Amino acid sequence: MSRSGRSGPPGRPDTADREHAQHPRSIAVWRLRSRGCWDDAAGLLAPHAAHDPAVALQRAALLGERCLFTAAGWSDAEDALRAAEALATSDDERGAAACERGHLAYAATVLGVRDRADEARAALGRAAALLAPAAQGRPMLDFRRGLIAEHLADSPQAAEAAYRRAHAGATAQGDRLLCSFTYRHLAGLALRDGELAEARHGFAESLRIREELGYLVGTAPALVALAGAEPEPEASRLREEAARLFRLLGGVPTWLADQLAPEAAA
Fold first, then answer.
1. For residues 163 and 179, what is the distance between their CA atoms, to the nearest angstrom?
2. Which of 33, 56, 103, 189 is deepest in the core (most CB within 10 A)?
3. What DSSP element (H or E) covers 142?
4. How many CA atoms lie less than 13 Å away from 193 in the CB half-sphere?
5. In whole angstroms, what is the distance from residue 215 CA to residue 249 CA?
6. Residue 225: burial class (beta carbons within 10 Å; 0-12, 13-18, 19+)
7. What is the pTM of this model?
């Protein structure tokens, strides 16, 4: 496994497979989230988010993911994030909230909504200062610092190092969804460097994990990414399957549309 890139703005991983195995509410939230029903999932969390810092942060993360996949809902995500920041009391909670702040600012920047690159860097720097090296949120922070390095700073070497740290941490924590994202981004860097076999392996692993977890909303991007490393006719087959899922989910993620035309219009 090595390096990374993208088939569009990266989705946002979370500790979904670990969380949804622990609580009936989390199972329901995961099922909604995995199908792109972020508003419904956030609604399930709302009563508890008013007083529980962890739930408030989870709700903010869901609404932030909706922004990244749909380029909409920014004010709701900002409100949820401010509420989570207000409830945070420990360094871990403040650090996790800062990590979400950085990712939301990154999403706005990479999607061309507004240039918030400086805010993204500052927030992730604050998260790094608050989160201990062994903190649960550290692999996610490393992944997001990799995104900044790759897509805002154009520093693939720094991005690769951050993605590798994130992958090792996610593996140690059993966070399979985050592993899916690190596999994909490392594979994209490998593809950019002409390491085709390595790229195929990483993209295939990313897709496999998403299919096993039932992360439907993230499956079409994974199919498109793998298609970019495969020869014909396999590449066309993968894109057609991605287009079918894209239509099934009502055109989400929105940034995938251009890459799927004319398949998405078929």
1. 10
2. 103
3. helix 138-147
4. 18
5. 12
6. buried
7. 0.91
Buried b (16+ CB within 10 A) or exposed e, 79-107: ebbebbbebbeeebbbbbbbbbbbbbbbb
Residue 113 tokens read as 């909504």
Phi then psi dihedrals of residue 168, to 5 deg: -65, -45
DSSP 22: T
- Contact (Cβ atoms closer than 8 angstroms) between residue 160 and residue 2: yes
The predicted-structure confidence for 98-157, as pLDDT tens digits, reads as follows 999 999 999 999 999 999 999 999 999 999 999 999 999 999 999 999 999 999 999 999
Residue type, 189: L
pLDDT digits (tens, 9 = 90+) for 169-197: 999 999 999 999 999 999 999 999 999 99
Distance CA 227, CA 229 (A): 5
- HSE at residue 83, side-chain half, CA atoms within 13 A, is 23
Task: Name which CATH class applies to 16-265.
Answer: mainly alpha
d(CA 159, CA 100): 19
